[in-house]
Structure formats: C-alpha cells, structure tokens
Design a protein that fits this description.
Blueprint: E1 5-9, E2 15-19, E3 23-25, E4 31-33, E5 38-40, E6 48-50, H1 54-57
Antiparallel strand pairs: 1-2, 3-4, 5-6
C-alpha cells in the first residue's frame, strides 16, 4: 500500500498528485517512475523528486 504522496505543479499552476508506486509520462515524453520512492527524470536525469513517507513525516507533503 502506498505510504507517501507528493505534489508538483504544471506550467498552468495545476497541481499533480503523485502516489508512491505510480508512474507517468511528462508532456516532453520523459518517464517518471515512483516505484522506489524516488523519481528520476530519464532525460538527462535533471529532475529528481522524492516521495516521503507519511508515516515518518506525520503529514502529506
């Protein structure tokens, strides 16, 4: 069961909710995979996100 979530915002200010274990393609075709809690942008690895555990943080980030 997912233990963490993270938000990011697109160019229009819309929030995108990530849940640990999900994956998606960005509009540039890059793949983001959340299966291990870290998201590394495949295009040059220039974007890294972290999905932190809600249990450890006590809050959703």
């Amino acid at each position: 069961m997912p233990t963490g979530t993270a938000f990011e915002f697109d160019a229009w200010g819309n929030s995108i909710l990530h849940v640990e274990g999900d994956s998606h393609h960005s509009t540039t075709g890059d793949m983001e995979n959340h299966s291990n809690g870290n998201i590394i942008n495949d295009a040059g690895n220039n974007l890294t996100e972290t999905v932190e555990s809600v249990k450890n943080r006590g809050a959703i980030i």
